[in-house]
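Chapter review: from sequence to fold.
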Amino acid sequence: MSKSPGHQKWPDHKVQEKRLDQPVQVSINGEVIADSSNVIQVDEDQHPPRYYFPRSDVGMDKLERSDTVTKCPFKGTAHYYHLKLGGQVLEDAVWTYEEPYEEHHALKDRLAFDDDKFPEIHIALEPKA
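The token string follows.
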């Protein structure tokens, strides 16, 4: 694991992680795809909040690995999944950092859903008890 080149080059760019103390669900047309009380919210400058779920709390049977790979100078290399639900396929709707930079090691192997690109993906935070 190495240091993030993005944080070194742009030290004022914020990528902040926080563990949520409330359940979070991801659903499409009422079908729950992910449900967890172990979610990390990432707030990054110029991006909407993202929610990273442990794989154990995601319906992995609904995901199919994509060939798409992108690089984030702050978090690392992202690998993508297509989300398959019934006859619907949302291409590259989910991503993961399998070897994130050390500043974001907590995101390792977690999954995030692109609810910005796909409005049919609904992410709901349950109220705190």
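Two observations follow directly from the output. The chain has one domain: 5-125. The mean pLDDT is 93.
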